Amino acid sequence: MNRQEDEEQKAEQRTMNPKQQATQTNVIKNFFTAEGRLKELPTKYKKKLIVLHHLVSELEPGRTYTEKEINEYIKPHHEDYATIRREFIIHGLMSRDREIYKLNPKEQWDRWDNLS
């Protein structure tokens, strides 16, 4: 995790209650290696959203990405970049116009913190 990503995650955690913070921390710890590779994509919806939010946290808001750039971004985290890329779209984290991808505003993201 780089410094900017760490600061963004801490800022996001300040808006969460302690139980939500613990949930997020545990999911990230359980599904990512120390090197930042995703072990597997969770099947439970809430955990999947936490993982996807974590993965997109390093992308720049407002910037456009080609499909190749998104694939190259995902590959160090998980070998099935096509599935992860589709999950970004399905859950509202990114939008796609032809082969151009853009991070959506967080207000459009499927939320995990209000799920039980």
Automatic annotation (TrEMBL):
<feature type="region of interest" description="Disordered">
    <location>
        <begin position="1"/>
        <end position="21"/>
    </location>
</feature>
<dbReference type="InterPro" id="IPR018656">
    <property type="entry name" value="DUF2087"/>
</dbReference>
<feature type="domain" description="DUF2087">
    <location>
        <begin position="37"/>
        <end position="102"/>
    </location>
</feature>
<protein>
    <submittedName>
        <fullName>Transcriptional regulator</fullName>
    </submittedName>
</protein>
<dbReference type="Pfam" id="PF09860">
    <property type="entry name" value="DUF2087"/>
</dbReference>
